Amino acid sequence: MPERRKIKRIISLEERQLVLNSNVVKSYPELEKLLLKYDRIYKSDFEDTPDFCGEMQTFILYSFKDVVKEASKEWVAIFNDDEIPSKDKRLWKRCSLCNTRNKLIFYIRNRISSVELNVGSECIKKFPHLYDAQGLSIDKIIRNRNKELDKIERINRFNAAYPGTEDLIKSWRTEYDSTPVVVPFELHNRVEELIKNANTVYTEYILGKTNESSIPLFGTLIDNYKELSKDIQLHVRRNINKKYICTLAIKQWLIDNKLKEVLTSIMKDSGFLTRETIRFIYYPPFVNDYLEAFQGKLAKTRFTLERFRDNSLTLKYNGGHGENFFFECTAKAFMYAFGSCIMDDEAYISEDELLSVLALTWSEQNISKMIEKFNTALKRTPYFLKLYFPEDKIEYNDRGRKLYSTGQAKIFCNAQKKLVIANDSNVLSVLDSLFKNHISSWKSVEDKDKFAIGNISKNPYLSSSEPETDTPVSSAKAEIATSLQTELQKPASTGDAIDNSKISIAEGYYLVSKKTTHCPFDNNLLEPKDFKLAVYKDKHKQSIESFLQTKLLCCKSCNRKYMNQTMLDKFKK
Q1: Pick from 111, 128, 186, 358: most CB atoms within 10 A?
Q2: For the chain, which residues make up each domain, given as ranges?
Q3: What would the pLDDT profile of 113-128 be if each residue is shown by its tens digit?
Q4: Rounded distance, CA 480 to CA 547, Å?
Q5: Which pLDDT band, with edges at 50, 70 and 90, does 459 fall under?
């Protein structure tokens, strides 16, 4: 009868050679006989030949890898390597372990027997301990050897009773971690405790910390796991198709997003999401599954869900007569605010609740329509708004007094986002009050034209020493330009900013009285800070005469800059 095909190699030629050339093999005479007879050993050899008794099969399957590891510790490099310069493979040396020719050869010596071997560059990688033995004394190697031999023997005895112990414990962890739904907290704790105990029983035995009486304890743990596994599978069968059961995908997402406390709460609720825990689940596939349900909760509003992409929701306000505006919100914020409502059939989301978490979609078309709506409401007043979208700037205008003021568009628009859904009467009431009572930093339109004041945010000098030629600041003695961008501007409030005919400070920079200690816009304390200013040679700003250091008062909140008369006088000197 022809010999059967070899199946599943257990001992390679390299491992055989290393062990046979090591002193450790003398401790296993039966193993040595087999290695001398077979250059490689396959699992199918157990059935084809009578050379492998049950005890030897167990040893080879579960203990031989530790023999290889121990054998590799006997060896140390004599010198690093020897590279054969010739490209002719026939001139390359053969590896003592795998018998193949190698261009790069490492030379190693057995610390106990002084046997020398040359090892190819690939084989040397398979035995990392070949490097670790360097510097160890023979006595220490022998002492360690005795410990390792005892450990190998204990591994063999344990696996004779329970074959593949380590793999069995790993399989329990894999099986539990792949459970398709979250299990109740009590079951979870039982699994964790059982796996921990199994590892302890096995590890302490093979390290010699316990005696033979501990081996049967593992059998009890095996029986306990079988019963526990049945309880878990019963939970899965009963609940896998139920609404709001926490799935494996959500469990893993919670772990990945460092939300283990939420996962623990879900376990304590028998593996189900509740009105409290669902607020923290912004896992994209989960949110996507409930978009239709959320749309139903918007039935009493003029909003519709338009899109969910990149973990962000886009909603459309349908005001009629072409008044359609877009808003957006992160899935995280939306679920935290409204996640629980999908579990309540009677709950609906109101427009005010929506607007508390939504922000206007920042597109030129969307924001331009908003400003157009506001100007329509203001058409019978002297006031109007002007948007500079690329510069993120809003300009407040009083055509009656020929005055203007500026602010940051994004802050203004989101502060007034509720007016988007208001009627013209309410819009007029709010904006009229804003213009009359909350803007004090008015500037003359004539001065604006006279000094050609533009948007300083277009001209930052953060990365360049050469300013542009249209720097929007002038004075009687010199042209002054800040080296920093105009910071965020909020709609102005009451304050004591004053005008001075001899100097014009650009947007966001104001001349104030000496007594001013707080920001006229938001009443926060002003702090002096150093700034670098450019002084031009002439009014045409064609070249810089010098850079000067000066101080400006800076508001920590809105970042506006101010200069009082004392500071201005020092600067002029």
Answers
A1: 358
A2: 1-161, 163-281, 284-360, 364-437, 443-572
A3: 988 888 887 787 766 6
A4: 10
A5: very low
